Structures are given as C-alpha cells and as structure tokens.
Amino acid sequence: MSRRPSTSGDVLRLIREDGVDTRAELGRRTGLSRPAVAARVAELAAHGLVTECADGPSTGGRPPARLAFDAAGGTVLVANLGQSRGQLAACDLAGTVLARTDADLPAGTPAETALPHVLGQWEALLGAAGLDPKGVRGAGLAVPGIADPAGFDDGPVRARLGVPGHLDNDVNAAALGEHHAGHRDRELLYVKASTGIGAGLIMGGRIQRGALGAAGELGHVPVPGADDAPCWCGSTGCVEAVAGGAALLARSPAATLAELAALARAGDPATVALVREAGRRIGEVVATAVNLLNPAVVVLGGDLAAAAEPLVAGVREVVYRRSTALATRELRIEPSRLGDTAGLLGCAAMVLDRILAPAAVDAALAAR
C-alpha cells in the first residue's frame, strides 16, 4: 500500500518537533522530491511558520539554508481561571509568555459567564502589549471542575476572534504546563491542593482526560476515618472535605490560603501540623494512584503547595509506606517548579498541540 504523501503540516511537525533543519533531510525523511519540499517550505514560510537562513555547514559550493520553526509567527491567547483567582496571557507559538495580567473576575465565576469578560480582557491585553489581533491563531481557557468542551470551539471565541477556542480543566492545564516546561517525565501525576483537590495525569507524554473528560477527580476519593465529613459533591468522607483548603481554613486562624501557607513557612507549630496532616490524608489517595498508574513523578501544586515542606513531607510519608516497593523505587514526589504559571503554560501547550497538529495546519493553509 502506497504511503500518503507528506503534507505541509507533516513537514512543519518534522521541523518543529524533530529539529529537522535542511531541505535535504526533509526529502530523506518524507520521500518528497526537491520541488515538493521547496513548495511545502515556501507555503509554511508564507504563513509565518518557518524561517530560513543561509548558515548551514558547507560541503563545497553554496551552504544549505537552515530551516527553523518561527515562534514569532503568531500569538495564542490563554486564560487560567481557578476557584479563587485567575490569570490571562498572550504567548508566542513556542508557548513563551509575551504579556500577562490578572483576570478581573469575581472568584468562582462560571466559564460561560466568564468568557465574554475574558474575551474583552484578551483584546485589551493585545492592545497594551502592542500585539496585532490579526496574528492570533488560537485561544485556550482552563476552568475549575469538569470542563465540557462541547460547542466551545465554534462558540463565542471563534465568533469574536475568528480562531478556534479550546477548553479544559484547570488541573489538566497545570499538569500539561509542568510536563512541557517543568518536569519532562512522560508519566506524571499532578496533584493540585488548593481550595479543592484535583489531579491531572500525563501518560506516554499525553494528558489523559477519560471517556467524558471527568478523569482526575482525586478530591472525591474517600479516605478512612472521615465518614462523617460532608462534601459539596453530596457524598461524605472525600479527601477534599478533610484536607482541602476550605477544610483547613475552618481549623486555622488564617483567613486565606495565602495566609495559611505563610504561617506554615514561618514555622507556626499548629499550622505546620495541620498542613502535614493534610499531606498525609492526600497521600492516602495518592498512594492508591501510584500503585495503579506507576508515575515517574508526583508533582504537588496549588495554594497549599506554597507551604511545600510540611505538605510534601506528609504526602511522602504515606505514599512511600503504603505504595508498592517497585512503584516507589524511583518515584519522586516534588513541589511544582512553575507555581502559578503552570496553568497558563499548560493552556498554551493545549492550544499549540491542536492548532499546530499536521491536519490543523493543512486546514489553515487550505483556508487561505
């Protein structure tokens, strides 16, 4: 059976992901003729996705032109909305943040209510940063809880910006951010311990969302000895009900999670004990996940992770004791390396993985 000829989208993937930087190597990798390679490179360059400069190594005669992915060839708009605060950013096509601002929204605003405000703030951010709105190639929004992307792509984002919009859970976005720009492990479990508790799972280098996008609801796994603790989900005994931010604030003099984390960092004995016990409770459900999934690293993020030492210590204590010896032999349990930026960078990665996929690139080129 003959192989489908490589398209311009396939060529871009080789340049962007595999680092192929000469026309000759593209020809070898794809089997395309020199004129076909030249046509595809020219098409990508005209679309602002590839640059060419004559600095390749010479083997006699004119040196070959060096190809490179052009991260400056467009902008993606991203927003990461948590339960208590949010951030917006404009990024280049490599996911580098070009401009960033806090979301001007009340805490806990639903996605459908927040989106018109986010669209306006994105447009204001582009103007303040001097970025051309015509260069926007995609947009992504991360929200708390289970995110239903149905209708989002062809909804207000496309109507107002003329580009595809992508929606995901804020914890999945943070997991993607940690994977792409923090921990490079292909098997990564990200646990967000904040107002609520959730998880994002990277397996084989890809985010796992489940059949209906409901994967990662770690906060609603029951823990022993908490049967009488009611949870907002309608059940009782959930780890979030006893170790989530709201539960800890109810037992602390702190008014906010930022204050609680500051007390823990300052060594306040009662707060340190409270956060470490929360880490133990979270560790009970993480231990089960480690046995089931065998990740290479567990990353702890969220507002409670700002008090990293007692939280991480509590999780480690239980996971290393209760998970199997093989699953924990090389397991690392670490605080987030990206902090608040994990969600924004992950949102950018989510959008870029989709709009720069070969089929999406080919469709965009055909639309021109």
From TrEMBL:
Q: Name one Pfam family in it.
A: ROK
Q: Which SUPFAM superfamilies match?
A: Actin-like ATPase domain, Winged helix' DNA-binding domain
Q: InterPro entries of this UniProt entry?
A: ATPase_NBD, HTH_MarR-typ, ROK, Tscrpt_reg_HTH_AsnC-type_CS, WH-like_DNA-bd_sf, WH_DNA-bd_sf
Report the leader peptide range: none
Q: Where are the transmembrane segments?
A: none
Domain of life of the native organism: Bacteria
The entry sums up its family as follows: Belongs to the ROK (NagC/XylR) family.
Chain ranges of the HTH marR-type domain: 14-55
Q: What is this protein called?
A: ROK family transcriptional regulator
PROSITE patterns reported in the protein's UniProt record = HTH_ASNC_1
